[in-house]
Amino acid sequence: MPLVEPVPDIRSLDLLHSVAESGSIRQAALRHSISQPAASMRLRSLERALGLQLLDRSHGRAQLTPAGIAVVQWSEGVLEPMVELLLGTRALRSDGKTHLRVVASMTVAEYLVPGWLNRLRASDPTVIVSLQMGNSQHVIEVMLRGDAELGFVEGPHAPVELASRVVQSDDLVVVVAPSDRWARRRKPLTAPELSATPLVLREAGSGTREVLETSMLSLDLSVTPLVELGSTTAIKAAVASGAGAGVLSRLAVETDVQDGRLVVVATEGFSLARSIRIVWSKERPLSSSAKHLLRLIEDSTGPRHPERP
User: Fold this and answer.
1) Fewer CB within 10 Å, N or C, the chain?
2) 244-253: per-residue pLDDT in tens?
């Protein structure tokens, strides 16, 4: 359908994501290699283009407004295809180079895959990697269709149709804003308390959601969504704004906790540990580039035995 509204600048949307991720315009500007005044100008231009206030600047530190959180959430569906477009066009320009297709769950794609791909590029600059992102259910669907050679998922298991190997351990943590009453509690949070509290959660089908629901189900409990969001970045922004408690990967919140944007709530009586797995087809042999990436990951995390040969 024809566009009927002014199209927001893609770079400005990407910058807004970085503000949501880092909690600071200054840190977002550093990530994008621009000055803080230039970043502020881009963000104000984005607000004018959308006719919305995306950031609350009244407390001396930029914090996403509810509209800003919504825009971060909706723009996931714009930025990810744009990344695929740029990677695809780069591959078309790369005559004679190897093209490796990878798909990863959101948390793994944001916090682990970049480091692994940097090692791959440093050891073999001829490899062009095309990366898709989605929740763990999407990753499995892509792998079963044969649309990627390697996949990264979170959760307790992988389908029997795919070979899999644990490459890293992780755990989920309950996080709140520093102003939340749970940030000051002295007793650890119990499973019944968590179950009785509406939470800011990932959507059904995500590895994070699956681990949480499986843990609660083992205790004959369930989880109640306050709001469901499709990205870790949006959840962190919502929790930091005081919307409620969230459950996220420890990997994803480490910097936010160090910076004081989020507080981890101690828990007891239940486990939110999980494994991060690499999956691939049992029917098709891995390419040399895929094997190379797998070896690099094992070298950085320690070798693991395949769960399914």
Assistant:
1) N
2) 999 999 988 9
Q: What is the DSSP string of 114-137?
A: HHHHHHHHHH-TTEEEEEEEE-HH
> What integer pLDDT is reported at residue 304 of this predicted model?
47
Backbone angles phi, psi at 176, to 5 degrees: -140, 170
Pair 12, 43: CB distance under 8 Å: yes
Domains of the chain: total: 3
End-to-end Cα distance, the chain = 47
Q: Helix crossing, 232-240 with 10-22: angle to 10°?
A: 60
Burial (CB < 10 A; 0-12, 13-18, 19+), residue 90, is: middle
Q: What is the CATH number of the domain that holds 260?
A: 3.40.190.10
Amino acid at residue number 19: V
pLDDT value at position 184?
Answer: 93
Q: What is the mean pLDDT of residues 82-94?
A: 64
Q: Are residues 161 and 299 in the same domain?
A: yes
- pLDDT tens digit string along 198-253? 999 998 888 889 899 999 999 999 999 999 988 888 899 999 999 999 999 998 89
CA distance 211 to 216: 9
SS3 167: strand
Tokens representing 214 are: 């499986």
**Separation of alpha carbons 153 and 164, rounded Å:** 10
Q: Tell me which of 68-77, 103-112, 148-157, 300-309 is least confident.
A: 300-309
b/e map of 181-217 (b: 16 or more CB within 10 Å)?
ebeeeeeebebebbbeeebbbbeeebbbbbbbeebbe
Contact status, residue 266 vs residue 125, Cβ threshold 8 Å: no
Q: Give the up-direction half-sphere exposure of residue 248: CA atoms within 13 A in the CB hemisphere.
A: 34
Q: Looking at the domain assignment, is residue 120 inside a domain?
A: yes
